[in-house]
Write a structure and sequence with these properties.
Length: 516
């Protein structure tokens, strides 16, 4: 179900930013939040760092990474126990409310706050503020899901507006990703080939997959739209495997990334201004048809042009296949029942709104795509997939040897690893003043950050914005930004989060000391 449109946040009386830093990754949302605050809205931020918006928030819950699940469950438990649950909404629009309440009952405010390392009074204040505020909206970021409890945590946070009855008003509910937005078509609609009966490999396990000698062994890797050396876990294995003489590596890229440097062939890719693009908004409920406005550099080609040329050279083109950008756009829109309406909007404005408009209100005029159009608070499929069942909390993996939680958020100037090309400054590990003092460290010192998976040698920066017990090394750094050529993803532990095959990036636990 599409969430609350970002522009509707202006109507909210309470905005909760949970595991998201719009100042870096959603800058278009920041002015909307500011307008809401000027109109009297309260702001709550749940984040282990004091982000720019957290500094100005009415309430900041600086929780330990990976503890979002007990915080959300304790809030759900309190809503039920204190008479704040909207049973009329739950009876009409949800299933599994009783089972959710039973599973949340094990978490008190005090227990959850203790696990998260925050003052229980702050969590209690959040519950009462959330219960009393309408409209109230939660913006859920990707930081919530990147740990061992990530899937259950997302489900619990998204359950909050259902339990408290925050839907069915403009600016009330939650937003995670609005990419689907009920467009009545998917990226698959222009693909004329059925899904291939080949194995599927999780990119979070690409290093191990390339290392396997059977199944059969992978002999060719074609990399496009990603930079696995800088983003995949087990960086040492990824580098080792891409360096193999018997692995043929092709990288289609715009800049000479660390992955491209290990390629046998680098194929130049166009930038987004150099080719036509039909795409859905990322968070915003808009579709864009953007023409090329610049001449491609050299022999660079778009994804469509490259794969079309490969089909032609391999003799795989069939009569009627959509090959050009224009043909692919036409085929994609033709697959939608509302394709004509969308095409008319795109021709007129280069922008289209979803059928029915972009500001439809969840549970007033748009509903879940489940068969019964209800929220399934404890869906059987997810309950089976989670290792010990949905909403089961797996404790912190820290130890005496590796006591610090390493997180790797985006920099405002580097939300994609591609932009590492522009970064001149060396990498800096951010550490709280107390954790730095305990290790005899000062800003600018050269430090070693390590665990059983690997080590990174870089500079350290003392940062009051980071809570004790947490250290920060930005994602998307290149090997040249550290002294030993490894980055944060060399420290990611093996294993996946509880749902969806997500890498548990924020479960890295490390030790830090001055480098010799």
């Amino acid at each position: 179900m599409p969430g609350v449109p970002l522009e509707d946040y202006a109507h909210a009386k309470l905005i909760v930013l949970w595991g998201v830093n719009p100042s870096a990754t959603s800058i278009h949302l920041v002015p909307v939040i500011e307008r809401a605050r000027e109109a009297g809205a309260k702001l709550v931020v749940v984040d282990p760092r004091t982000t720019p918006l957290a500094r100005r928030a009415d309430l900041h819950l600086a929780a330990r990474p990976g503890t979002d699940l007990p915080l959300a469950l304790a809030a759900i438990n309190a809503l039920f126990a204190r008479g704040h649950a909207d049973h009329r909404f739950l009876d009409r629009h949800a299933t599994g409310a009783g089972e959710l309440a039973r599973r949340a009952a094990g978490w008190s405010i005090e227990d959850a706050a203790g696990e998260a390392g925050i003052d229980p009074a702050l969590l209690d204040r959040f519950v009462e503020l959330y219960a009393a505020s309408a409209p109230a909206v939660i913006r859920i970021g990707w930081g919530v899901e990147r740990n061992r409890n990530g899937g259950s945590a997302c489900a619990a946070v998204m359950a909050l507006p259902a339990v408290a009855g925050k839907f069915a008003v403009r600016g009330g509910g939650f937003t995670m990703s609005n990419g689907d937005a009920k467009w009545t078509m998917t990226p698959e609609t222009a693909i004329g080939e059925p899904v291939a009966a080949t194995r599927v490999i999780n990119m979070s396990e690409i290093g191990a997959a390339l290392a396997r000698t059977r199944d059969p062994r992978i002999e060719c890797l074609f990399v496009y739209n990603c930079n696995p050396v800088a983003t995949a876990p087990d960086q040492r294995a990824v580098i080792e495997q891409l360096s193999r003489d018997d692995l043929f590596v092709i990288v289609h890229e715009q800049v000479m990334t660390d992955s491209a440097r290990l390629a046998d062939i680098v194929l130049p890719a166009t930038a987004f201004l150099e080719h036509r693009e039909l795409r859905r908004g990322y968070g915003t409920m808009r579709m864009f048809d953007s023409p090329a406005v610049a001449t491609p550099v050299g022999e660079s080609r778009s994804n469509n042009q490259l794969f079309g040329a490969l089909l032609e050279r391999l003799g795989l083109v069939r009569p009627g296949d959509a090959m050009t950008d224009d043909e692919l756009v036409a085929a994609t829109l033709a697959a939608s029942a509302h394709g004509g309406e969308l095409r008319a909007q795109l021709d007129r404005d280069h922008v289209a709104l979803p059928p029915g408009g972009a500001s439809r209100i969840p549970f007033a005029d748009v509903f879940p795509s489940t068969q019964d159009q209800k929220i399934h608070l404890v869906p059987e499929a997810l309950d089976r997939e989670a290792p010990a069942g949905l909403y089961h909390y797996q404790p912190d993996p820290g130890s005496d040897a590796y006591p610090l939680a390493l997180i790797s958020p985006a920099l405002a100037t580097q939300i994609s690893s591609m932009f590492g090309q522009l970064r001149k400054a060396p990498a800096q590990l951010e550490l709280s003043p107390g954790d730095a003092a305990a290790r005899g460290l000062a800003s600018g010192d050269r430090v070693r950050v390590w665990n059983a998976s690997g080590e990174v040698i870089c500079l350290v920066k003392i940062a009051r914005e980071v809570r004790p017990g947490v250290c920060v090394l930005a994602k998307g750094l290149w090997r040249r930004h550290t002294s030993n050529g490894y980055t944060a993803n060399a420290l990611i532990p093996p294993g996946l989060a509880d749902l969806g095959g997500q890498a548990a990036y924020n479960d890295a636990r490390v030790q830090v000391a001055k480098a010799t």
